[in-house]
Structures are given as C-alpha cells and as structure tokens.
Design goal:
This protein is an alpha+beta fold. Helices cover 17% and strands 41% of the residues.
Length: 248
C-alpha cells in the first residue's frame, strides 16, 4: 500500500510551531500593570515608575525578560519567573518616548510594551552677545526640549518682532528655534528675546545684537589697475632697453 508522504520540518521549526500552538491553545499572554496591549504611561521628571509584568494562562514556569529600548535590563534571579518587576527612578527627560518591553524568554514574539510619556516644561535660559558687521547675516539659535511641544515667540526690545519678508527667516524643529536676519542694518541693533512656552511653563533666552560699522573692503579695482600699470611700465622699459640688452 502506498504511503502518503509526510511533511518534514526542521527540529527548530517544529519546536517553534509547538510553542506557538501551545500559546494559542492556552491563550498565553503577558501584561504590564494589567495592560495586555502596548500603552503609554504619563509621568514627570524626578518621579518613580513601577512596572510589573505577569504571565497569564501558563501551565509551566515561564522566564521573563525586560528591555529598555533595544537594550536588555539586568534582573535578579528571583525576579524572572512568571512575574517580574522593575522600577525606574528617578525618571528624567531622556526617558521620554522610550519603550520598556517585557518578553517571554522562550518566545520573544510574546511581548508587551509601555512607552513613557515624560512631561516637562521648556528648558531654556541665559543670554548671548553677538557683534555682527553691517550687511552681513546673523542667526540667533534657541535650543530647547519640552513635552508637550512648545511654541516660540520672538521679541525685539520687549516688543513682538515684526517679521520682514526677505530680511527675517524662522526655522523650527521640536528642539531648535532659529531666527536668521539677512544683511543686517543699523536698525537691527538691539535685544532679541526667544520665548519658548508650553502648557507646563516657559523659558527665555536673550540675544544682545550689536551691529558694527562695515569695514572697508580691499579695493580690488585699484589693485588690478596697479598691476596693469606695473606690467605695462615693465614692458615698455624692456622694449626701450632691448638694444643694450642684446649687446650684452
């Protein structure tokens, strides 16, 4: 009797298939702080965040792993099986947007993440003095982080700056706020203030712009004329003395 050919699977693939079927059959899943799906968690700098990862519907002891972004978190031996806890303290601005992920050690596709939403006001202060020659360009730069994202307003001598097309240019990202002034004139002299404000507060930075007189440029035309005169003079001098030069 002819036998029906069987489908051969590599050993590793068979183990993964069995693990997957077992997880599907039992509904094996993880949760962080009772959330079975990825979720954001709002906090503030200086606070602490406690995260607890728990295995659900497991018929055996399951080892857990924690990751901060792509880097694995070191855990003590008694904090790895079926339930695992980590504490983030103190929370700081660099934790904003970072995912903390709990994974099943034998099948890392079984996982759940929490994304930290660290709220903090704009961080901006200080002052700067710029001495710029007339008719040259200047760029005033405010570097500021904040969450939620802040709005920026520019002032000149305590009054809202009126932007002039072709003379003022604004550039803004989530962390950089720039004001560029093209071909500076004496009227641009003064104190510029960058005010970065969000719902949590504001930061300011002052720029004292000093417009200096334009330095006289090197007269290119005069130099070219002098070179021409010297060249012509030498040429005629050589021509006038050519007979003597040839005799020598």
């Amino acid at each position: 009797m002819a036998q029906t050919p069987s489908l051969a699977l590599p050993c590793g693939a068979a183990i993964l298939a069995i693990s997957f079927l077992a997880s599907v059959a039992t509904g094996l899943e993880l949760s962080i702080n009772n959330h079975a799906a990825d979720f954001p968690l709002s906090t503030k700098p200086g606070h602490s965040v406690s995260l607890s990862c728990l295995v659900h519907n497991s018929s055996q002891a399951e080892q857990l792993l924690w990751y901060r972004g792509d880097g694995q978190v070191s855990l003590k031996d008694g904090n790895k099986v079926n339930i695992s806890n980590i504490c983030i303290y103190p929370v700081n601005e660099s934790d904003n947007g970072v995912a903390f992920t709990c994974k099943l050690a034998r099948d890392k596709s079984v996982q759940v993440s929490v994304i930290l939403d660290v709220e903090f006001p704009p961080q901006l202060s200080g002052e700067e003095t710029l001495q710029i020659e007339e008719e040259k360009d200047a760029t005033l730069t405010c570097n500021s982080k904040s969450n939620p994202q802040a709005q920026t307003t520019w002032y000149k001598d305590n009054n809202t700056l009126i932007l002039q097309q072709g003379h003022h240019e604004l550039y803004q990202t989530s962390e950089v706020f720039q004001l560029s002034i093209r071909k500076i004139q004496k009227s641009d002299n003064g104190t510029y203030t960058c005010v970065v404000e969000s719902s949590l507060g504001k930061g300011t930075k002052e720029f004292h712009l000093i417009v200096e007189d334009k330095k006289p440029g090197f007269p290119k035309e005069a130099v070219i004329a002098a070179i021409v005169v010297v060249t012509v003079t030498l040429f005629f001098g050589i021509v006038a003395r050519k007979d003597k030069l040839f005799k020598v």
